[in-house]
Amino acid sequence: DGWLSLIRNPKNDLIPIYVDENCIAEGKINVSLEIVKNHNIDLEANNHFTSFYYVDENFNGDSDNFTFETAIKNDPEEGALVCQRSEVSILSEFGRHFIQFCNPRCIGELYLKLGTELISGENNDLSAFGTNMDEWNIVKIEIRNKLATIYLNEKVIYKTSYESSNGKIKGLYYNFSGSGSVDYARLYNSDNTLVFSEDFE
Questions:
Q1: Which of 3, 86, 172, 199 is the most exposed place for a label (fewest CB within 10 A)?
Q2: Are 69 and 88 in contact (CB under 8 A)?
Q3: Nearest-angstrom CA–CA distance, 19 and 174
Q4: How many CA atoms, within 13 angstroms, populate the side-chain half-sphere of residue 44?
C-alpha cells in the first residue's frame, strides 16, 4: 500500500534490511518480533531499529503550513528497546521536520528538527517529550507560517519558530528503537483539508 518497512542495525546501517513481509495487521503497522527474528537480528544485542517510509510525489503540501496527526507506541512487549525512542518525520524537498519521544528516563538523548533548527535534549528542556510509550500516544504537528506547535495527547508541549523552509512535503517517515507501531496518519493542508489518511485497515 505504498509503505516501505525496514529493519536497521547501527553496525551495518548502510545496508538496511528491506522487509518483504506484510507488516500491516490489526489496524496498525509494526515489524513484529517474529519478522525481526526471521531476518537473523540478534535481539539480545538491543541495537536494532525499525522504520516506515511513505513517499509520494503527489503530496506537494507546503511544509510551512500543514497539520499532521498520528498515533504511535513503542511497547517493550512488542520489541521496544530500553529508551523506547520513537521518531516522527515529515519529509520534504530540502530536508525534514522531525520530533522524537521516549520514556522519561532518556529525555537527554532526544532531538527535534523544525526547518533547519536542530534542538537537542542535552541543552534544552525536552522533558515534555518523555511519555509512557507502552501506550498509544497521539502526536500532532501544526505549522503555520513557520511557527510550529507540537501537541502530545491533545496538550501543547512545545512551540518554536524557524526561518528556512524545507519546501514541498513529499512523504512521511517513522523510526523506532526496536519495534514500534503506528496506528494512523492524517495530513491536512493549510486550509485544514484532509489530503492524506492512512488507518492501516
A1: 199
A2: no
A3: 15
A4: 0
Can you spell out the DSSP letters for 134-160?
TS-EEEEEEEETTEEEEEETTEEEEEE
**In which residue are the cell numbers 517493550 written?**
76
Contacts of 34 (CB under 8 A, 6+ apart): none
Question: Any idea of the CA torsion for 98, 101, 107, 109, to the nearest 10 degrees?
Answer: -50
CA 2 to chain centre: 17
Q: How far apart are CA 51 and CA 102, in angstroms?
A: 16
In the numeric block, which cell numbers belong to residue 29? 503497522
Sign of CA dihedral 80, 77, 70, 15: positive
Listing from the earlier edge strand, what are the strands of the sheet with 96-101?
A: 17-18, 3-8, 49-55, 169-177, 86-92, 96-101, 111-114, 117-120
In angstroms, the CA 127 to CA 23 distance is 31
- DSSP state for residue 29 in the 8-state scheme: E
Cα gap 5→103, rounded to integer Å = 24
Q: pLDDT tens, 143-190?
A: 999 999 999 999 999 999 999 999 999 999 999 999 999 999 999 999
